[in-house]
Specification:
single chain; about 260 residues; Rossmann fold; about 45% helix; globular
Length: about 260
Amino acid sequence: MISGARTPLTVNLTGLRVAITGGANGIGRVMANSFVACGADVFVSDIDEKSLAACGLPGMRADAGQVADCEAFVDAAIEHLKGLDVLVNNAGIAGPTALVEHVKPEELEATLRIDVESMFHCSRRAIPALRAAGGGAIVNLSSAAGRFGFPLRAPYAAAKWGVVGFTKSLSIELGPDGIRVNAILPGPVDGPRIRAVIKAKAQAAGVSENEMTERTVATTSLKAFVTQQDIANMALYLASPFGATISGQAISVDADMQCTM
């Protein structure tokens, strides 16, 4: 079974100032639209200029793999929003699908740089504004790959395990300031990215994409993909007053994933 549409979480976030990296595509765009629907003011970044123009949200082009772009985005968000209450570190890439001995050094470096180092740089830049706001929330996007080993996806798994460690460490540092830091660990999220990963893994395994899709779904107790809205709903919850005492957590939204292939 593949999950269908989900109902967006309804919560009053009027006036909440939210910055989202990778916010013009995929999960990031659904999160951005969901925050706006709840009354928040949102500023996004994305490397895809066409999607950025099409999303209809305030934002700027930024490459999450570049420190200067991370810093410029956070600075621009704070200026546009006149402060900051929530940072969502969503930008990321899938990385290579290959055995470790076939992964090129530059592929590993790019995956780590975009998937975990960007969160460090954006958070570091955002902390003074969150502290000035009297507290707030940082939501980092990890993955089920940050809880399990992922064969053929070692660079991605290494990055996403790193996100969990970074999240926990930062939550302890920022707790006294009333800044909550959590990680969301999506399982297989239906959409273009998982389709591309399934295609690559199917080719590597010498099986059809349909078979690889069924193998992927079979790793979950609910026998389902999750949706982008499921992830957005968790981000909304963590950023809202309902998540006021939730910090330092790695929260799986994965249809009860039990293992990887």
